[in-house]
Specification:
With 386 residues, the chain is α+β, with helices and mostly antiparallel strands. It is built from 11 helices and 8 strands.
Length: 386
């Protein structure tokens, strides 16, 4: 097994680190506390071509391999996890369009999505359907050459900027099993009846908006049916969510890395009893634990990303998302403990890391649900440990 990046990946990582250190870290805490949208950072990511990381080169994208894709989210989340969210939902939706869209849909959307002129997200979750996507209630009824869409979506990242927004709907609500009646529509945000009703207040994951969307008799042209075929929407969505778990695992590693960096630096600067607290064994034990778990999480994240290159990797990506997200939260808590009372202050970075880390065990499927996904993959022999 080769645990090293190739030369191109090393250069790419250096470019990303420089961008994060220069453009994100100096402003993240202030902008997050002010509720300021990171317009300048988004423009910087667009200038670097990062909105095209899952778009084929023929449409103007970078078409990164899964390991390089993970590298992007680790580095950006090290600076500010909310910024990684802006790019994450966009990238997954772009991959879904690139994999499953008709040629006309790809030509219509992907070139501008690659440059960031257009942005997008994914409309999946509903008030009564999160993990159980087959329980969605949003419907799309075909009338002539348009689908009439009614329903609502919530927790939608990039909702105020997504155009189009791929939305999971039921084109046949009576289908059994339910997933056979589900499709994805590419809904332009300027259509009448497409309403972003509110931003949902959140503990963390700030910098990007998470919104509730109302779809009130939205008339969507029939040629916006992703792939041009009804009834395969769930399959299309799941293919994107597999990359989504790599995304969350890598973001978790980024959070853990920043927690490690902050704890180590503080322990060397802060003095007690006339000595840096890094000299005390109790602090050394925490620093060693964070560093050890961080390195294990990083290896698992990139192992899972590498597995995706070979095809479906539900078990591997599920394991990585579970482990890395839990390491991120443990690292944030230990970093807060190293900081003592200052760790609870909004004047230091670690309290933000703690708030952001909590989401990692919930997003892209809760960890408990993913444990069942991993178990089923093991039982079917699709994932082999050892």
């Amino acid at each position: 097994m080769d645990f090293k990046f190739d030369e191109d990946q090393r250069e790419f990582r250096a470019l990303l680190r420089n961008f994060v250190d220069r453009e994100i870290i100096p402003v993240a805490r202030e902008w997050e506390q002010a509720g300021r949208y990171p317009t300048e950072i988004v423009k910087g990511m667009a200038d670097m071509g990062l909105f095209g990381i899952t778009i084929p080169e023929e449409y103007g994208g970078l078409d990164l391999d899964p390991v390089s894709f993970a590298l992007v989210f680790e580095e950006i989340a090290r600076g500010w996890m909310g910024i990684a969210g802006i790019l994450g939902s966009h990238s997954l939706a772009c991959r879904m369009i690139a994999m499953h869209g008709t040629e006309e849909q790809k030509q219509a959307y992907l070139p501008e999505l690659a440059t960031g002129v257009r942005r997008t997200g994914i409309g999946l979750t509903e008030p009564d359907a999160g993990t159980d996507l087959q329980g969605i209630r949003t419907t799309a009824r075909l009338e002539g050459d348009h689908y009439v869409v009614n329903g609502s979506k919530m927790w939608i990242t990039n909702a105020r900027y997504a155009n189009p927004l791929p939305v999971l709907v039921k084109t046949d609500p009576s289908a059994t099993p339910a997933h056979k009646g589900m499709s994805v529509l590419l809904i332009d945000s300027d259509l009448e009846g497409f309403i972003v009703t509110k931003d949902i207040p959140k503990l963390g994951y700030k910098g990007t908006e998470s919104c509730e969307i109302l779809l009130d008799n939205v008339r969507v042209p029939a040629d916006r049916l992703l792939g041009g075929v009804e009834g395969i929407g769930m399959k299309q969505v799941l293919s994107a969510l597999e990359w989504g778990r790599v995304n969350i695992a890598a973001r978790s590693v980024g959070i853990a890395q920043r927690a490690h960096d902050e704890a180590l630096a503080y322990a060397q600067q802060r003095k007690a009893f006339g000595r840096p607290i890094a000299d005390f064994q109790a602090i050394q034990l925490k620093l060693a634990q964070v560093a050890t778990q961080l390195q294990a999480a990083r290896l698992m994240a990139y192992w899972a990303a590498d597995a995706v290159k070979s095809g479906r990797a539900d078990g591997e990506t599920g394991m990585a998302k579970i482990f890395c997200s839990e390491v991120a939260l443990e690292a944030a808590i230990d970093a807060m403990k190293v900081h003592g009372g200052y760790g609870y202050s909004t004047e230091f970075e670690v309290e933000r890391l703690y708030r952001d880390a909590i989401l990692m065990s919930i997003g892209e499927g809760t960890n408990d649900i993913l444990r069942t996904v991993v178990a089923k993959s093991l039982i079917r022999g699709e994932t082999v440990v050892g």
